[in-house]
Design brief:
Helices cover 24% and strands 39% of the residues. It is α+β, with helices and mostly antiparallel strands and 354 residues long. The protein is elongated.
């Protein structure tokens, strides 16, 4: 009986200790932190974007007629100069042969008259007629030669076949798209930015993008151009080119991404922090500084010089670049208190759906 009581009280003691430990663990505040940045280095904003091929065109014959061959399939890699499709060239070959024979005859006669004119053996009027006739037949010869050459559809660059619009034996008119192809050059990213960022475009410093399927990679970007006219949604389209080595695996056209825009650093001692990190105590503006080693927070007085429209505070005193400040949960903390950090969520996987 005595042993049973000992076991019983021991179990109660251990259970109480576990509950107390759990209560202590649950009472540790969970907060969100942000890095103190030098004024002008803060990440201004992130925008959703779409990867696009650097060149995407529809190829068409310049002449009309039935298609004799299509030498490529959708998704196939093509090389510059490769013959992608051919039109039935029978009629154009006959036309060129007749013109070529006429061209040779007129050219021989014109050269004879020009030689006689140089010897002053024929009048100037005959010379003018010979030169004019040669020019006319040369233009006709070149036009029919080009038409025969145009019976072949040539790849203008290395890339991939995106879509086929027609098949063999179909008759098409000049200018009707036959194939859609995209370039294999470094892809581009397209985003739309609001007017507030457009007017600050001269302060844009660097750009980068990230993808949910490449969680550990950041791809640098280079600005190509920003449209000077807003679209119907009052947004300005910006085009950026990916920077990197073609040999590395890069995102392909059609992928969604998140683009980060960074401002150029300014020659100043000012710093920036999110507005949510500031609170007041005893009439002073304060923040909580996070200590990574002890996982605690300490209060710090700061001096604020500006509140920006992008939700950032400009600080002139009290902080150093690189320090971490609490940005969420500031009202429930106390000096020297131990805290836990809120796990970061991927910008491209909001809600943890992927």
């Amino acid at each position: 009986m005595k042993n049973i009581l000992i076991v019983f009280y021991t179990a109660i003691f251990l259970l109480s200790a576990c509950k107390e430990q759990n209560r202590q663990s649950e009472s540790v505040p969970i907060v969100k932190i942000s890095e103190v940045l030098k004024y002008g280095e803060e990440k201004a904003v992130s925008f959703p974007g779409k990867v696009k091929a650097s060149s995407e065109i529809n190829l068409a014959f310049r002449i009309s007629g039935p298609i004799a061959k299509i030498n490529v399939k959708e998704g196939e890699f093509i090389k510059k100069g490769q013959v992608l499709a051919e039109m039935d060239s029978r009629d154009y070959a006959i036309q060129f042969s007749a013109t070529e024979a006429e061209y040779k005859q007129v050219k021989a006669e014109a050269e004879r008259v020009i030689q006689l004119y140089e010897k002053q053996s024929v009048p100037e009027n005959d010379y003018d007629k010979a030169v004019s006739g040669l020019q006319q037949i040369t233009a006709k010869y070149d036009a029919h030669k080009n038409a025969l050459n145009d019976t072949k559809l040539i790849a203008p660059f290395d890339g991939y076949v995106q879509k086929r619009y027609f098949d063999k034996d179909e008759t098409i008119s000049a200018g009707m798209p036959v194939l859609s192809i995209i370039s294999s050059d470094m892809p581009e990213v397209e985003i739309n930015i609001p007017a507030g960022e457009f007017i600050r475009r001269d302060k844009f410093g660097k750009f980068a993008c990230s993808f949910a399927i490449y969680p550990d990679k950041i791809f640098p970007l280079e600005l190509i151009a920003i449209n000077q006219k807003a679209n119907l949604n009052q947004l300005y389209t910006a085009r950026l080119k990916m920077i990197g080595d073609k040999k590395t695996q890069l995102p392909t056209a059609g992928m969604s991404t998140i683009v980060d825009i960074y401002f150029k650093p300014e020659d100043t001692d000012l710093l920036t922090i999110p507005i949510g990190s500031m609170f007041e105590k005893n009439g002073q503006s304060c923040v909580w500084i996070y200590d990574k080693n002890s996982q605690t927070v300490n209060i710090r007085n700061i001096t604020i010089t500006e509140i920006q429209i992008n939700g950032m505070l400009v600080v002139s005193r009290g902080l150093e670049a690189g320090e971490k400040v609490v940005t969420a949960g500031v009202r429930s903390l106390s000096d020297g208190e131990k805290i836990k950090l809120l796990p970061q969520v991927s910008k491209t996987n909001v809600g943890g759906l992927l």
